[in-house]
Specification:
The structure is a single chain. With 1324 residues, the protein is α/β, with parallel strands linked by helices. It has 53 helices and 29 strands. It has 6 domains: 225 residues, Rossmann fold (3-Layer(aba) Sandwich), CATH 3.40.50; 90 residues, Enzyme I, Chain A, domain 2 (Orthogonal Bundle), CATH 1.10.274.50; 117 residues, no CATH class; 241 residues, 3-Layer(aba) Sandwich (Rossmann fold), CATH 3.40.50; 169 residues, Orthogonal Bundle (PCRA, domain 4), CATH 1.10.486; 230 residues, Lambda Exonuclease, Chain A (Alpha-Beta Complex), CATH 3.90.320. It is 49% helix and 12% strand. The strands form 7 sheets. A 7-stranded parallel beta sheet has the order 16-17-15-18-22-11-23. A hairpin with a 3-residue loop joins β19 and β20. α7 packs across α15. The longest helix is centred in the first third of the chain and has 36 residues. Keywords: ATP-binding, DNA damage, DNA repair, DNA-binding, Exonuclease, Helicase, Hydrolase, Isomerase, Nuclease, Nucleotide-binding.
């Protein structure tokens, strides 16, 4: 029975109903700023404090979205109870409720799940001492489990097995990262279902189709058919509008016949699309097309109207062609064959995902851990009866106990729940009329990327309105946050944008906001203008941009095949860089607009008083400050730094909580490099970075001296020891031996002392890393080196110190997990960086600082600000998720592409097409809700900011919206949007405030009748031409200033002003500049770095021998590469091949020749033993060892040359070198050009150089070429250039002559003596 509202109550009628009604399930649709939290708290207090029907606080379950919200709600309830107790000090019931507040279940759903598991852990079963794994720990465990699982699958799967086919189809080209991501994504996605394994199996089973009838009954076909109908209706609307214009005065009347034929065609296709047969639709589209337009007489036709008709018809034509090319290029039977071929791969994928889930669960159980998803699923397992099925959810005894305990279940932010959480709530809620009280706003559901399901809210929103027996729906539409200008503006926009087909909800009268806030007006505010303002910067028609006309291609994709060999990013870095540059230029322009407006608002340049804002504490107006202003962006990663820099340059303090940049911070990179060499000092780049950093401040020249001294101190090659080996060798007291051609080199005493201090401290830190905690080690480094204090004195020192503290804190968090050790910590950091992850710059600013805040729209949800700038409105929506080779959808399941591994091509399958289109529509609905959240944040003033390419063209597009006859914009126009501006532009073109703007741009001036009395107020400003003013200001500097300004705009990709066409005197200069050609064009065809092998090829024009000859092998190579290789790298191809290639044979032979111990008694048995030892040391595989002919190697060592090698006092093998040569010696066609003397870097690896007993140097190179029965002399000729270059390198670097050169061919054990070229230069 309804409770009468007290006369003194300030609650609205709807709020009072939400507070007092009960006895059934209730859904409160609380719009932005409607006071839902206050309503929820008041409902709880009235239930607890009621004297008529007293209820204990612990008999309510109140679930909030965040712990902070739960704590705030609990505190507000406690304060309210204390207030009631003051009124009724003798109330034992109120005292009891205050005592029970600590036990009250006012918490998040995750915390409630934890409570259930702790109480009923024996039912799972789970170790009662379990704890929640943090994100770092869980990620490391998942990676370890997945690596082990995939490695096992490679070993046992068989080359032709399902797993290998799956890896070839959906793995990466270079490694298995893509496959790993797919398995983990599918695992996580399935966990948002109450029955994850059942969903996976059922989804895989849906690919098992045998007939076209099954295909036509599938959800995929139904989704596509619905989408086709919507697009065809859009084409129909465009053609009707074109026909209306064609028949108007001045219109191209001959076009009317063509347009009527086009309308008939689209009408016929719509009729077929309403049917149920794919084949009928396929055949209907095969002959679908528009005819050629009839000619028009120029003197009877208005050219502008004619062009408008053509544009509308072309738009409809593009839609038709897009549908036909994407969906109906292939016959239905072909789609069916693809599904049949994919069915076994989907089954294999599901099997792998389920197996991964089991192995991951086992690993967590061993460590007594659970993750956040486990909390929900374990709780559901406890509350769900064993007799439950995916179609029928039955409560367990534990669930029945909770049903008895909780008199009411109250859920805040209900629009952001998922299906697992819904199942949990259903099991603990009472049956029948129900006892659920759900509060939320589906218009603010913006967490679909976290697998939230707004469909749960929408289903109840519709059903509760249609049948009150299912539940009671109450709409809280009154907004107590914003001024009427904001409320009216939001209503005007979203009445046009939000409809059920595109936005998933109608913005009807019950959804509209009603202004409930009371603000001072008129003289109290100084007659300030609170109208919503749109600031548009016209970038001009020539501005470079990505947002061209082809919306359809981005919207729907393409059905053409994609090459698998074009990896992500392959061939596209230039496009990506240009796109980033254009985006940053746009951000700069918008930042400038915002900067000027803020300076004007706060009167920073003098003049009028600052903008006045209402202060709730003083209940009066005050001057605005920086903290009253916020800039909202859809994504902050790229734009926030630009905005901050521009604002700060203008004297406006600004702050943004960046999500990236932490690992790129210099101070963090230095400490991470130091940690890397503490873990393993044999890492050249981190070691050099630490020595060059302010920690030790070695100069580049000093590092070179260390390398030289280390080389001079070594008795053998140092290539395998790296720079740290050179450091240790440079510190040796006195070298006993020197390499070939070198003389001893000693460091200065001062440099030696500094280097000794470094190595001693490094050794101590390495000992601490082995014995102590990582966090202590990091803090000791800060303390001992003084680096923390040093960075504090640098520019941005506060932020730098915050970053170092964050690294220390994160190491402590890491050690709180089940993992330990520096190596694993660094491994996790590297994996995060490889995956594009970042930790975000450490927070170095308090909440109350007087700064302009820049934040993402998502971060702003639930907050409010006096003045809001919404920027980046023309930034394209992020559709990267739609480009994946494997899409996922809760309802439509898997959406893989069909991959032809033989042709290396991929095609979109029917599921892929259906899911892609559905995901795009869901993305648009989500983006519309994000825009709603942004526009409902301001309390007093809202600015919409956008830089627009070719505003005139855009406005012509937007003006098509004026033909709409009802409030909502046409659905196809909404569905084609690529940015927020594609919605806001057409909406505002229908507002009376746009009349002046339309007059200025020569557009039709009329306002739809529906909007003639529109109460909302907008002001639209168009700015352009600021660049010209900059140029004029620089004109007084003799042209130099103009050049600098022009250069800055070119670097920023900002459009320049047109030069007057009458300035003929500039024509020759412009022509000269545009026709300029680079004078050394031939040099662009030369590589600045090449190899000896490539030079040999240029000389002989013969095919390349094994490229592997230039690669180091054996332990030296392993030590250099081991740290850089990720354990996620795919197996080397030679491990996958059934037969070794010639290059792989060469690698095997070179490895043996490098590792064999040199002694006079090398025979067949010694060689076999060494080969076996190399296999044992994993320097060779079993397959490689089988190709080594030990007899041939033995023959070489029995030869005079082999004996001389064994007797040599000094031998160096696998010697890398680099040299500079002139281009004329490398490229024959460069001899007579200006580039002849350009420097080219040459790199190579010499197989062997040894010193004979008489002191002469012998150069030896091994070849695995097949001689086909020859003596090797002919084959050796093509290696003349190579040997000459090797000899020249040895002689010039070591300053000793090479007296003999030999080639040894393993084919037939042939030794060929070589002589230097007649000119002795080895020139090409």
């Amino acid at each position: 029975m309804p409770v009468a509202k007290p006369a003194h109550a300030t609650w609205t009628d709807d709020q009072w109903s939400a507070i007092t009604r009960g006895g059934q399930n209730m859904l409160v649709a609380a719009a932005a700023g409607s006071g839902k939290t206050a309503v929820l708290v008041e409902r709880i207090i009235r239930k607890i404090a009621s004297s008529e029907e007293p209820m204990d606080a612990d008999r309510l379950l109140v679930a909030t979205f965040t712990k902070a919200a739960a704590a705030e709600m609990k505190e507000r309830i406690r304060e309210a109870l204390e207030g009631e107790l003051v009124k009724s000090p003798d109330s034992d019931h109120l005292r009891r409720q205050l005592a029970l507040m600590n036990r009250a279940s006012i918490t998040t759903l995750h915390s409630f799940c934890m409570e259930v598991i702790q109480k009923y852990f024996q039912l799972v079963p789970l170790d009662p001492g379990f704890r929640i794994a943090n994100e770092t720990e869980a990620e490391l465990m998942r990676q370890d489990v997945l690596e082990e699982q995939v490695e096992e699958l490679y070993e046992t799967g068989g080359v032709d097995g399902r797993f290998w086919r799956l890896a070839e189809s959906f793995g990466g080209e270079r490694n298995d990262d893509v496959l790993f991501s797919l398995i983990q994504n599918l695992y996580d996605f399935s966990r948002s279902h109450p029955w994850p394994e059942a969903w996976l199996l059922q989804t895989a089973k849906s690919f098992e189709m045998e007939t076209l009838e099954e295909l036509e009954e599938s959800e995929w076909f139904l989704a596509i058919r619905s989408d086709v109908r919507m697009e065809l209706r859009g084409a129909l609307d465009s053609l009707r509008q074109a026909l209306k214009l064609a028949e108007s005065p001045g219109g191209p009347k001959p076009y009317a016949a063509n347009l009527q034929d086009d309308l008939a065609l689209i009408g016929y296709l719509l009729e077929v699309a309403d049917g149920e047969r794919w084949e009928h639709l396929y055949h209907a589209f095969q002959g679908a097309g528009f005819g050629k337009l009839k000619p028009c007489k120029a003197d009877e036709t208005d050219k502008a109207v004619q062009d408008q008709v053509k544009a509308l018809r072309e738009q409809a034509k593009k839609q038709l062609v897009s549908i036909r090319d994407e969906l109906f290029e292939r016959e239905p039977a072909e789609y069916l064959r693809e599904l049949t071929a994919l069915a076994p791969l989907m089954q294999e994928l599901v099997r792998i995902v389920i197996s991964f889930g089991a192995k991951y669960a086992e690993a967590k159980t061993e460590k007594g851990l659970v993750d956040f998803a486990d909390l929900e699923h374990f709780c559901l397992q406890i509350l769900r009866s064993p007799d439950s099925t995916p179609d029928q959810l039955l409560p367990s005894e534990a669930a029945e106990q909770y049903r008895e305990r909780f008199m009411e279940v109250l859920l805040d932010e209900y629009q952001d729940t998922n299906m697992v959480q819904e199942a949990i709530v259903e099991l603990i809620s009472r049956e029948g009329a129900g006892n659920r009280f759900m509060v939320g706003d589906v218009k603010q559901s913006i967490y679909r990327f976290r697998l939230a399901d707004p469909g749960l809210f929408l289903a109840k929103y519709k059903s509760f309105a249609e049948q009150e027996t299912k539940g009671l729906r109450i709409d809280l539409a009154r907004n107590f946050r914003s001024r009427a200008e904001i409320v009216d503006g939001v209503n005007f926009i979203f009445k046009q944008l939000m409809n059920e087909n595109v936005a998933e909800i109608n913005y009807d009268q019950r959804a509209e906001l009603v202004c409930g806030a009371t603000y001072p007006t008129g003289a109290e505010t100084g007659y300030q203008d609170y109208a919503v303002e749109m600031l548009l910067y016209n970038r001009g028609a020539n501005a470079a941009d990505d947002d061209e006309d082809d919306e359809l291609s981005d919207a729907n994709g393409t059905s053409s095949a994609d090459s698998l060999d074009s990896d992500e990013g392959s061939g596209a870095p230039t496009d990506s860089a240009l796109s980033d540059l254009r985006e940053l230029a746009t951000a700069e322009l918008e930042a400038e607009l915002i900067t000027l407006q803020i300076r004007k608002l706060l009167a920073l340049d003098g003049g009028d008083r600052p903008f006045q804002v209402y202060d709730k504490r003083t209940k009066g107006m005050r001057s605005g400050s920086f903290r009253d202003i916020v800039i909202l962006l859809r994504a902050t990663q790229a734009w926030s730094p630009v905005m901050m820099e521009r604002l700060r340059a203008a004297g406006i303090p600004a702050y943004a909580e960046l999500s990236t940049g932490y690992f790129q911070a210099t101070e963090v990179e230095v400490i991470l490099s130091l940690l890397k060499i503490i873990d393993n000092p044999y890492q050249d780049i981190p070691l050099a970075g630490v020595l060059r950093s302010p920690l030790y401040a070695f100069t580049a020249e000093e590092l070179a001296q260390i390398r030289i001294a280390g080389t001079a101190s070594a008795s053998g090659a140092t290539g395998g020891q790296g720079f740290y080996g050179a450091v240790l060798q440079a510190l040796e007291p006195d070298p006993e031996h020197t390499p070939l051609g070198d003389t001893p080199y000693r460091l200065s005493d001062m440099l030696r002392d500094r280097l000794t201090a470094f190595t001693e401290r490094l050794d101590r830190w390495r000992e601490e890393a082995r014995q102590g905690s990582l966090a202590d080690l990091i803090w000791n480094i800060y303390r001992e080196t003084g680096y923390y204090d040093l960075v504090g004195g640098m520019p941005g020192g506060i932020q730098r110190q915050a970053n170092l503290r964050a690294l220390y804190d994160r190491s402590r968090q890491y050690e709180a997990t089940s993992f330990r050790g520096l190596f694993r910590f660094l491994r996790f950091i590297e994996r995060m960086q490889d995956g594009g992850g970042d930790l975000g710059a450490a927070r170095a600013l308090g909440e109350q600082e007087d700064v302009v805040r820049i934040m993402s729209i998502h971060k702003s949800k639930g907050l409010e600000f006096p003045v809001v700038f919404v920027a980046g409105l023309s930034k394209a929506f992020n559709q990267s998720d739609l480009k994946s080779n494997f899409l996922l959808h809760k309802k439509l399941g898997f959406g893989p592409k069909f991959v032809d591994t033989a042709l290396r091509l991929s095609y979109p399958t029917l599921p892929n097409l259906a899911i892609k289109r559905s995901m795009r529509m869901e993305m648009l609905a989500e983006e519309m809700r994000v825009l709603y959240v942004a526009l409902t944040r301001p309390k007093e003033k809202l600015y919409l900011v956008s830089a627009v390419k070719d505003l005139e063209k855009q406005m012509a597009k937007w003006s098509a919206a004026m033909e709409a006859t009802d409030w909502s914009l046409p659905e196809p126009m909404l569905a084609r949007a690529r940015s927020y501006l594609d919605w806001l532009g057409p909406a505002l073109m229908r507002h009376p405030a746009s009349i002046t703007l339309k007059q200025e741009w020569g557009l039709a001036v009329h306002t739809p009748v529906l909007m003639a009395e529109e109460p909302s107020r907008f002001r639209i400003h168009v700015l352009s031409g600021g660049i010209q003013a900059d140029l004029e200001a620089a004109a007084g500097s003799e042209g130099e200033g103009e050049r600098e300004v022009l250069l800055s705009y070119l670097q920023q990709a900002v459009p320049l002003q047109k030069v007057s066409e009458t300035e003929d005197k500039l024509e020759s200069q412009v022509s000269s500049r545009l026709n300029w050609q680079y004078p050394d064009a031939e040099a662009t065809g030369y590589f600045t770095k090449t190899t000896v092998t490539e030079m040999k090829r240029l000389k002989t024009w013969m095919p390349s021998e094994e490229e592997a000859e230039a690669l180091p092998v054996g332990p030296a190579a392993a030590s250099n590469s081991e740290s850089a290789q990720s354990s996620w790298i795919r197996r080397p191809r030679f491990l996958e091949a059934r037969k070794l290639t010639p290059a792989e044979r060469g690698i095997a032979y070179h490895a043996v020749m490098q590792q064999l111990p040199l002694s006079a008694d090398i025979d067949h048995e010694v060689i076999l033993n060494e080969i076996a030892a190399m296999v044992e040391r994993e320097q060779l595989t079993e397959e490689q060892s089988n190709v080594i002919d030990a007899a041939v190697v033995s023959d070489f060592f029995r030869s005079p040359l082999g004996q001389a090698l064994c007797r040599s006092p000094r031998v160096q093998r696998e010697i890398p070198f680099s040299r500079i040569l002139e281009a004329r010696r490398v490229y024959p066609d460069a001899i007579d050009t200006s580039s002849a003397n350009e420097n080219i870097l040459i790199q190579g690896v010499i197989d062997c150089v040894f010193e004979k007993e008489d002191g002469g140097l012998v150069l030896l190179d091994y070849k695995t070429d097949s001689l086909h029965g020859g003596d090797g002399q002919a084959a050796s000729e093509r290696y003349q250039v190579q040997l000459d270059l090797y000899a020249e390198a040895v002689e010039q670097i070591w300053k000793r002559p090479v007296t003999e050169m030999y080639l040894f061919f393993f084919d037939g054990a042939r030794i060929v003596e070589m002589s230097k070229s007649s000119d002795g230069s080895g020139a090409v």
